[in-house]
TrEMBL record:
Organism: Collybiopsis confluens
CDD domains: BCAT_beta_family (cd01557)
Protein name: Branched-chain-amino-acid aminotransferase
Family classification: Belongs to the class-IV pyridoxal-phosphate-dependent aminotransferase family.
Residue positions, PTM N6-(pyridoxal phosphate)lysine: K217
Secretion signal, residue range per the UniProt entry: none
Gene3D superfamilies for this protein: 3.30.470.10, D-amino Acid Aminotransferase, subunit A, domain 2
Cited Pfam families: Aminotran_4
Length: 398
């Protein structure tokens, strides 16, 4: 029953006359003592939480509770809860920046809100009003604004999470849920930010498969990759290049979308990323790179550091390990990089497969010129130095 309630509607209509989430009902209980903010050099991704968090609960009879901002801390959750037993947990990852005007900013937050709603729907969790969630996120960030590092390349990572809190061991959808948003100051994702990462292509374990949940940001997609990641790291690689199928299709790198740059016979470049066929997470960064690449080639913008004659042909196209090996052998594989909110862009310097490494050209500063161009432009928009298509949203306009 609960499944059809949330499938395809995206509204609360399946739950008769229950309350939606309302930012106007927000209550704020501030922490008695505020934490010292660690020096930015000491920050490692996801290990420091700000002072406050946002919480709201859903119950099938009453709907969404009044949301509350409270000191960051443990929630009380029964061990028989759906999220504990069956992994009904979905999440988002976005970043808040301080603009040159001193105002906090978000990057394309509507895309994160829409994806959170799709993830919730896929897990048969109750729906919610996404614009109210965004308003609440804004209020939470304003309360903890001092946690946004005002240094380029640093930001406040925002982690909205929706938990299924139905207390039952029955294998069924959770009609109870808790929405929680936490904030974590962050710098470069990989400690050696200037250095390209190494990946090892793995086909024995798969991250996602046709008909699975790879296209959604659901917690269940990640933990099964921890053991293979540990094995990869023992072999001396930092991340896994996830393959799929007997033809060894390249899907994603770690928890990042992957791009490769292939030099063409006419001297232009193909910028290739796998298509959104349900096995690939529809990344906001991925979408932004594709759009900026197209705009550069159409002459609508010039990406920093690239000449007008460097033309990028963006392709959402399946490619395989044998394709990579062929491009590599022909000297056409000029760049490879992972893309995601946490890293923005991580250059890939080495791709291992069956005991052999494809080693990509080294560049000063770690990133190849095309990866660097995207990284710089995206950061410029995120941090408010440039505007593009309304992607950077200042709190003054939210
Ligand atoms: C979150 C995520 C990405 C990147 O998405 P962004 O919206 O760019 O942050 C890519 N792949 C996976 C598996 C992810 O979970």
């Amino acid at each position: 029953m609960a499944l059809w309630r949330s499938v395809g509607t995206g509204t609360l209509e399946g739950f008769s006359r229950v309350a939606d989430l309302h930012a106007s009902k927000l209550t704020v209980k501030l922490a008695k003592t505020l934490k010292p903010i660690p020096h930015h050099d000491t920050l490692t991704f996801g290990n420091t939480m700000s002072d406050h968090m946002l919480v709201a609960d859903f119950e099938p009879r009453s709907g969404w509770s009044a949301p509350r901002i409270i000191p960051h801390g443990p929630l009380s959750i029964d061990v028989a809860s759906s999220c504990v037993q069956y992994g009904t947990t979905v999440f988002e990852g976005m970043k808040a920046f301080i603009g040159p005007d001193g105002q906090p900013r978000l990057f394309r937050p509507d895309m994160n809100m829409a994806r959170l709603a799709r993830s919730a729907e896929r897990m048969a969790l109750p729906p919610f009003n996404t614009s109210q969630v965004l308003t609440l996120i804004k209020k939470l960030i304003e309360v903890d604004q001092r946690w946004i590092p005002a240094i380029s390349g640093y930001s406040l990572y925002v982690r909205p999470t929706l938990l299924g809190t139905q207390m039952s061991l029955a294998v069924a959808a959770s009609d109870h849920a808790t929405l929680c948003v936490m904030l974590s100051p962050t710098g470069p994702y990989f400690r050696s930010a200037a250095k390209p990462i190494s990946v090892i292509a793995v086909s024995e374990t798969v991250r996602a498969w046709p008909g699975g949940t790879g296209g959604h940001k659901v917690a269940l997609n990640y933990s099964p990759g921890f053991l293979p990641l540990r094995v990869a790291q023992k072999q001396g690689y930092q991340q896994i290049l996830w393959l799929l199928g007997d033809d060894m299709k390249v899907t994603e790198a770690g928890a990042m979308n992957i791009f490769v740059v292939v030099r063409r016979d006419d001297g232009d470049f193909d910028l290739i990323t796998p298509p959104l066929d349900g096995t690939i997470l529809p990344g906001v960064t991925r979408d932004s790179i594709l759009a900026l690449g197209k705009a550069h080639t159409a002459g609508e913008t010039t990406l920093p550091g690239l000449s007008r004659s460097t033309l990028l042909h963006t392709k959402e196209k399946t490619f395989t390990i044998p394709d990579l090996q062929r491009w590599y052998a022909e000297g056409k594989l000029v760049e490879a990089f992972g893309a995601g909110t946490a890293v923005i862009i991580a250059s890939i310097g080495k791709i291992g497969y069956k005991g052999e490494d494809m080693v990509l050209p080294e560049h000063e500063g770690g990133l190849g010129p095309i990866a660097q161009a995207f990284r710089k432009r995206i950061l410029d928009v995120q941090e408010g130095r440039e505007s593009w298509n309304g992607w950077g949203v200042s709190f003054a306009d939210l």
